[in-house]
Amino acid sequence: MRLSLRPTTRKAAAAAAVLALAGTGTAVAAQRSAGGDLADDFAKVDRNTTWTQVSATHLDFQTFHTEALAVTPDHVFLSAVEIIEPTQKYPSPVGGHDRTPGKGVGHLFVMDRQGHLQKDIVLGEGDMYHPGGIDYDGRNIWVPVAQYRPNSSAIIYRVDATSLRVHEQLRVPDHVGGIVLDKTTNRLVGNTWGSRRFYEWTLGGTQTDTWLNADHYVDAQDCQYVDAGKMLCGGVTNLPQTASAGGSSAVYELGGLALTDLHSHRILHEVPFQRWSEAGHVMTRNPVKLAAHDGTIDLWAAPDNGEEAGGTELYHLRADVG
Fold this sequence. Notes:
- By secondary structure, this protein is mainly beta.
- The chain has helices at residues 10-22, 24-32, 36-42, and strands spanning 52-58, 65-71, 76-85, 89-94, 97-99, 103-111, 117-123, 128-131, 135-136, 140-147, 154-160, 166-172, 178-182, 187-191, 197-201, 207-212, 219-226, 230-240, 251-261, 267-273, 288-293, 296-301, 313-320.
- The strands form six sheets. Strands 8, 9, 10, 11 and 12 form a five-stranded antiparallel beta sheet that branches. A four-stranded antiparallel beta sheet has the order 1-23-22-21, sandwiched between helices.
- A hairpin with a 5-residue loop joins strand 19 and strand 20 (267-273).
């Protein structure tokens, strides 16, 4: 089964792109992307893989700073943080923190298949207002909302993907920037600030494992569960430029994708990603999800913030690896 998209107008392109993401035929493929096809096909991706843009859908609502995507048969979910007061670095740590908490609002936007906003679910509490990487387990959307600073605290929410009811699942005494549900163990796996450490918890909130991230290539931003017992993450590292290109005041966004075994904690396959948005952000900067079928991998990303000149575009890219 392959997607066929031939939009003839911007409006048609927008509808076609999101229908491809969450429509009936492709929704089956997208959900099966949590299965064997994606792991096998992603292993064939390398730095020479050609990613062709299928479409770009402009989201016509204020998206703020986009964080993560999740796709269900009925909806497209986008997490984002609205910054009201930016954090400020302390001259020296205060109470174990390197910066002020700042102020903000955490959003989980619910869109229909055409990309129209249906609901804005506000999540968080007090200083915990920063939603991170989210994932869909076939029934629920898992959303961590943390303080916007490392070594802090977070709430893990479970949102019913059909009724949109919100349930607080557990609280964690650390910043959690992403979450997936390992279906082989029925345990949650989350990553900390910069994905430097991973945790595992029971659904009741008991921590069962923790390990350091052995990879220093990119910081994982948005992850998805892949059968069986794997996790595929997109991420980014901001690197300073050479003096002739602006020096430390200029930033090069190095993007990448990595497939990790949740049991051995070993990285199974990792590649750089070399496609950029209209605003100049690497596609894996924040929200990214992938699906695979019959030797084709589809990737959706929304790397641009709502405050940027062009707003947020939902990009759909495709690679043939069969």
